[in-house]
Amino acid sequence: MVYDIGANVGYYTLAAAKYARHVCAFEPSPTIVSILRRHVQINGLHNCTIVEKAVSVKSAYARFTPAETHGGENNGTGHLSGDGALVVPTISIDEFCKTQSPPSVMKIDVEGAELQVLEGSASTLAAQRPILFVATHSDELLVRCWQFLESHGYKVSNGEGDRAPGLNEILAMPERSSA
Fold this sequence. Notes:
The chain is 28% helix and 26% strand. By secondary structure, it is of the alpha/beta class. Strands 3-2-1-8-9-11-10 form a 7-stranded mixed beta sheet, sandwiched between helices. Strands 4-7-5-6 form a 4-stranded mixed beta sheet. The mean pLDDT is 88.
């Protein structure tokens, strides 16, 4: 099971669906979800579930700024924001996994909310030990996510083997049980 968190229009969802038993694509933007649904449909994918929610530290509601309302250079720059134009439902991965199959792989690209996603996934990370691909959106978030993952028993790398500024995409492999 692959979780594509911050699925956008489905680039990773479509790629993962070719190899994974099932993909859960999480995307809160109604505009982007309509494109994502179309991409899944035209590719004839029946092993994808689209979850129209933002992933965060808890299940609730949050304000969201779609890319088109802030002049984003592309449709992948929507983000949770205190002054966002939309109110969207949120869900934690730990809550989602209470009723759904847990992930073996998680891709996280959520425009600045990476640490909240990880914090809302702590029990799942401990119990399931998925492989993680995380795109952080600042050097500070890179360090904080890196520390969180290491403290949960993951070996973290960003291509240089350290927390090199500017290399904000990281791979986290389960190293040991975090129990």
